[in-house]
Specification:
4-stranded mixed beta sheet, FADS-1_CS, about 450 residues, oxidoreductase, Flavocytochrome B2, Chain A, domain 1, elongated, mainly alpha, lipid metabolism, fatty acid metabolism, about 55% helix
Length: about 450
């Protein structure tokens, strides 16, 4: 290595370091001198500069209603190429498709301008396997803006993306064909096709290029990006709260049903994102139609009981978390243990209203004046076993009363109730009324 190159390695912990030591530029600090080398300029041109150019041109180019209709239709066609094709068919193999349908989805996905099937599915499988970690290529933990678009416009070290198996993609002839010929396919499907269609049909060449071509593609981009960002930030988590994925109608509306993301991360191989009939998931409806027509088969659906079990488990987790914030009293296992005689003695001489219920001693002194049944009723069971009286012998108390009583625990009684009763039970197990406190 020359002295000049050696001096650069020593003096700069930035791009020069990456060149000398073999570090990828993404693994070096961003400085005022090297920031432009951290930028993925192809991503900037495709997702920012070209859409900005189209927005400027749209000031002078009027939008014809026919071109507007074409733009909406082509948005759905290319969007389905991503959601039904790139995502649910190739990334998650949630169904199988005929070669005719696969070709159409490969062309439609290319029209969205989001990279080849192989590149897209490889990143998405890494996202699912390593969600919210540094191995996730668009982890929301790196920031909402980063997960939305930053990961595309800033260079990433491909070796830092988690490893996944894409052998099935490498063996798919249509995936390989699209990947090897992606540039001419994407130029034709994303820009030339809508331009030719609108120009040759109703003479709107410029409008077809700007509206049905560039701006339509930009809208599909942003809708897809919302699944990486918004769907990990906005909404509910009915199936799992340990990861960032969330369900929200807005994201589903933007991304052809991909917004029920919490369900999707729990059941990724299911062809649906939305399980309820009223939830917006046009991708699911289209796949169902293809299945009916024989174009899609081996469509995967999780057993409804498995879905319901996970939903109930998550509800239990949420309830347990909320319950842990409340005072439920000292757990019985942590209470001091008293002999029955000790309990009676403390109740009689301690100046406190101690009552034993179900083997637990409760100090109801502070509550005595507000007891709905009156002070005399409480005094009548002080120092005694009030289990029967509390549980229906005098009055069957509500669950609120049980909860309130639990906060007054101070000790437990060895054997659970009076010694005499306990001894009687030991000698006569056939006694009609169980002496053990319930």
């Amino acid at each position: 290595m020359s002295a000049c190159r050696q001096s650069k390695c020593v003096s700069h912990i930035d791009t020069q370091t990456s060149l000398c030591s073999g570090l990828h530029i993404a693994d070096t600090p961003i400085t005022m001198q090297n920031w432009y080398k951290h930028v993925n300029w192809w991503g900037v041109v495709l997702t920012i500069l070209i859409p900005f150019y189209a927005c400027v041109q749209a000031i002078w180019i009027p939008l014809q209603w026919k071109t507007a209709v074409l733009s909406v239709i082509y948005y759905f066609m290319t969007g389905l190429g991503i959601t039904a094709g790139y995502h649910r068919l190739w990334s998650h193999t949630s169904y199988r498709a005929s070669n005719c349908l696969k070709i159409l989805l490969a062309l439609g996905g290319a029209g969205a301008g989001e990279g080849s099937i192989r590149w897209w599915a490889r990143n998405h499988r890494a996202h699912h396997r390593y969600t919210d970690t540094n191995l996730d290529p668009y982890s929301v933990n790196k920031g909402l803006l980063y997960s939305h678009i930053g990961w595309l416009i800033m260079k990433q070290n491909p070796k830092r993306i988690g490893r996944v198996d894409i052998s099935d993609l490498n063996e798919d002839a249509i995936v390989v064909w699209q990947h090897q010929n992606y540039l001419p396919i994407v130029i034709f499907m994303a820009l030339l096709f809508p331009t030719l269609l609108s120009g040759m049909t109703w003479g709107d060449w410029a409008g077809g290029f700007i509206y049905a071509g560039i701006l339509r593609m930009a809208f599909v981009h942003q809708a897809t990006f919302c699944v990486n960002s918004l769907a990990h930030w906005l909404g509910d988590q009915p199936f799992d709260a340990s990861k960032s994925s969330r369900d929200h109608f807005l994201t589903a509306l933007l991304a052809l049903g991909e917004g029920y993301h919490n369900f999707h991360h729990e059941f990724p191989s299911d062809y649906r994102n939305a399980t309820k009939w009223y939830q917006y998931d046009p991708t699911k409806w289209v796949i169902r139609m293809w299945e009916y027509l024989g174009l899609a088969y081996d469509v995967k659906r999780f057993n409804p009981e498995e879905v319901q079990k996970r939903r109930l488990q998550q509800k239990h987790t949420v309830l347990a978390r909320e319950a842990s914030k409340l005072d439920w009293g000292v757990p019985p296992s942590r209470l001091a243990v008293l002999e029955w005689e000790e309990y009676v003695e403390q109740a009689e001489k301690g100046g406190r209203y101690l009552i034993a219920i179900a083997g637990i001693v409760h100090d109801v002194t502070d509550f005595s004046k507000s007891h709905p049944g009156g002070l005399l009723m409480l005094r009548s069971v002080v120092g005694k076993d009030a289990t029967a009286a509390f549980s229906g012998g005098v009055y069957s108390h509500s669950r609120v009363a049980h909860n309130l009583l639990a906060t007054m625990r101070v000790a437990s009684v060895r054997g659970g109730c009076e010694v005499e009763i306990w001894k009687k039970h030991q000698h006569n197990e056939a006694e009609e009324t169980s002496p053990m406190c319930q």
